[in-house]
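Exercise 3.2. Students should predict the tertiary structure of the chain below and write it as structure tokens, then compare their answer with the key that follows.

Predict this chain's 3D structure.
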Amino acid sequence: MQQTPSGNRKDRLLELLGGLKGHLLSLMIGVVLYLGYLLIRGSRPFTNMILYNITTPYKRMMGALCDLVPFSVMEVAVLLTLLIIVAVIISCIIRTIRGKNRLLVIIRTIVGLAAAALLIWDGYCWLWGLNYYGDSFSDKSGLEQLPVSSETLYQTTVYYADLANTYANLVSRDENGVFNEDLDSIFAQSDTIYAGIVREYPFLDAPARTPKRMAASELMSRINFTGVYFPFTSETNLNDQAPSMLIPSTIAHELAHQRGIAPEQEANFVAVRACLTSGNDVYAYSGALLAYIYLGNALYETAPDGWKEIYSTLSEEVRADLAANNLYWDDYQTKEAKTAESVYSAFLSSYDQDLGMKSYGACVDLLVADYVEQAQAERADYLNKVDGVS
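Answer key:
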């Protein structure tokens, strides 16, 4: 008995669905996990519960395991993933050329890769994305971000410029007067730099983990990245070819992410305070310099004359480091860097970080708020002493 065309189509459809059963199930699981993430992130209490009881313990366990090896497990994982993708695509091409069920092979490959990509994205959302929707540093610390006046911004910039000038004389320099501390020592000393800030903000306490120097640092420079925190392995990975004067504060920034501080502006502020309270002159200089850069950029936009006045007070050493940093990154203003910036801005926006890459500059609000709080505390102490004398 001869089959009808509709019977043939039905058999082919059943065969196609049978061959896709596993991949479709994976895809459905991926969709359910993502919908669950979207549902959970809408409730801060539930988000905090997941963060404190599931994702943070997992990341601390993975951080302890990956800390046992000196290389970046993240880089190995990313490389293996790329190799597997290439192998799957090559296999698909070969089987399509040689095989009979070409349509099935192509669709299975596409659906399989889509399911794998969705599951990886789900993992990232649950392990890291939720951090954007739980209690923030500002919530936990009580340090409120208020509107910043030009005068207060000016005073805060003066304060950090003075700190940069002070610590600039306490670090090693090369024959050109540029920062020249040993990178191995900088990385080795990173395990103690949070001791000071933890006394101020105990919720930042976490096991010390050694940041990893990336083998792909040149690639990182080409896309204008100085470091990356990888939640799957809970590693902080650093571009060790970036200008070394800011590597200590970059380490502190990535370690802030490792402690659950997700927003970039908050991680920058935490990095500055960790460096300045570390008792380590090298880290303190890097933190003060980072703070000056962000504050100076903000002041330049609002009060250029004030910026010029403060810049004129910078020591030769600080100016040499700023010039070296600018010169290095000028060589990497490439199409790849611009593309990476656009992609990362879109990535931040997907977590409701609406300022995108510009959210890095929002750490100015926290720096100013902290400066004002310190000034008020110092004034209160002074008035108490005066009252005691009288």
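Discussion points: The chain has two domains: 5-132, 139-384. The beta strands are 212-213, 227-230, 235-238.
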